[in-house]
Amino acid sequence: MLDTLHYEDFAPHVNSRFQMQLSEDKMLEIELVSVEDKSTSRQEQFLLTFHAPLEAPPLQRLFQLRHEQLGSGQLFLVPIAMDEHGLTYEAVFNRKRKT
After folding, report:
1. Contacts of 18 by beta carbon, 8 Å cutoff, 6+ apart
2. Which residues have C-beta within 8 Å of that of residue 40, sequence separation ≥ 6?
3. CA angle 7, 12, 77 (to 5 degrees)
4. Partners of 18 in the beta sheet?
5. What are the CB-based long-range contacts (under 8 Å, 24+) for 4-7?
6. Number of structural domains the chain divides into
7. Each residue of 4-46: pLDDT tens digit?
8. What is the pTM of this model?
9. What separation in angstroms does the CA of 15 have from each of 12, 23, 24, 40, 61?
10. Residue 50's domain is classified under what CATH number?
11. Domain that includes residue 30, residue range
12. In whole angstroms, what is the distance from residue 93 CA to residue 21 CA?
């Protein structure tokens, strides 16, 4: 379900927490730190940026995420930065607008 949402759905939830499932019995809490709209008249484009703890895997892949209000689903997350505070992931949405 998360992959069907739009910029307007995510934007009010900046600074909220998501649960990231790493394995059947291991979850991590990550935070949505920004939602950036890059849309054009022909394309719906937006970026989600998440901050994760240091123990998050520095891998790009589909992750199962859950949010208390937005629901759950899989998002393809790409690690874009790491520092002493943790790992930053990005999810990019790029869809043709319905005409």
Report:
1. 29, 30, 31, 32, 50, 65, 66, 67
2. none
3. 55
4. 30
5. 4/73, 5/70, 6/44, 6/46, 6/93, 7/35, 7/37, 7/39, 7/44, 7/46, 7/93
6. 1
7. 999 999 999 999 999 999 999 999 999 999 999 999 999 999 9
8. 0.94
9. 9, 24, 26, 26, 22
10. 2.40.30
11. 2-96
12. 21
Long-range contacts of 56-63 (CB under 8 A, 24+ apart): 56/20, 56/22, 56/28, 56/30, 56/86, 56/87, 56/89, 57/22, 58/82, 58/87, 63/20, 63/21, 63/22
62 burial class (0-12, 13-18, 19+ CB within 10 angstroms)? exposed
Contact 74, 63 (CB under 8 A): yes
